[in-house]
Design goal:
heterodimer; A: 135 residues; mainly beta; Immunoglobulin-like; five-stranded mixed β-sheet; four-stranded antiparallel β-sheet; 10 strands; elongated; B: 142 residues; alpha+beta; 16% helix
Chain lengths: 135, 142
Amino acid sequence: MTDSQREISKKEASTPEGVERTRPHKVYTPNVDILERTDEIVVTADLPGVDEKSLDITLEKNVLTINGRVETEVPEPFRMAYSEYGIGDYLRAFTLSDEVDKERIHATMKNGVLRLVMPKAVAAKTRKIMVTADA
Amino acid sequence: MLSTDFGRFGLLDPWRTIERLNQAASGMLAQSPSEFPSVNVWADGNKAVITSELPGIDAEKVDILVNGKSITLRGSRKSEDACEGECYHRRERWHGQFARTIDLPFLIDTEKVEARFNKGVLHLTVPRAEADKPRKIAVKFD
């Protein structure tokens, strides 16, 4: 298996040892892009099968949790002939630093992709310190 | 290496035989998709439903081509948030072009193929061509 293949196959989310989930579904870790600009942090996550109604985003004590529920859709009366990917919920959590302005986090969902824009708190914005040459 | 010693004497190489058996077994059990995008196929005798997860792609930007027994999905996804320098904390999502051809075990009724794109999941309903369906032949008595 090459690196590119490992990237695109779905990864199952881990659970703490000895702990089980209540729902029998599989739970996957969504792939994310996280990028930082001068005044915001943008999180983009692939959540195919999730829409704005079946998505929960919670923020508790600096831990941002993305939880997307996927309805397993079995087209009746068909039977599965061939399967390459599993269907299940999505779960992923990130620890945020204090620099994020938690009141102004903005989330949008389009075509199964979540985009979370987290503006940085004013105090945390990077200040550039000018260096002047001493004559 | 033991295997090369066997090979030098022109004998049947047991290590190579084991290796070959292992490869054959792992090929049968391969769970990971070798092609992109991954698809699931549901079927009954006269119809197949193909689903594929393609998040972040607009419905009109997926090309679906049907030809005989095969169906081809083609499209691309660009990374939307361009930023200069080292501003990425994580970069896990795929982007680029893809093309995937799926061969079905029957001739496709090209006129009746339906495609639905919802929440980043593509659903294709592919019916079997009338001419390809099995026909029942009545036996006549003389």
